[in-house]
Amino acid sequence: MHWNHYRYHTNSMAGETAARAENKAMSLQARCDLLEDRIDTLGLVCQAMWELLSESQPDLEQALSQRVEEIDLRDGKRDGKLSRVQRECPRCDRPLHQRHRSCMYCGEITDQENLFQE
Question: What does the pLDDT look like over 5-16, one tens digit per residue?
Fold first, then answer.
């Protein structure tokens, strides 16, 4: 009798765990789909900007390539990634997380460094 109750309870818990994992996977897939849509939109906008700019500036491709390399090397390594510079909280001087607008230690709201920071 106890064994059957134990097996039922264990199976029930396993089923609940599996359901939670499936829900989380579906939620993550939905977030991934949204991010892919955003990337596609950004790619479209970048292509449109590139075409507009290159029509008016014939030597733009070389200048852009040089600027991309310059920005890529700002962190000391050529890896094709935009690395953000570590910032400190103006109130408590602790490191700020790159993706948060407020300090996780003291709650200070910080300003964006530039237009592209979110």
Answer: 677 777 778 888
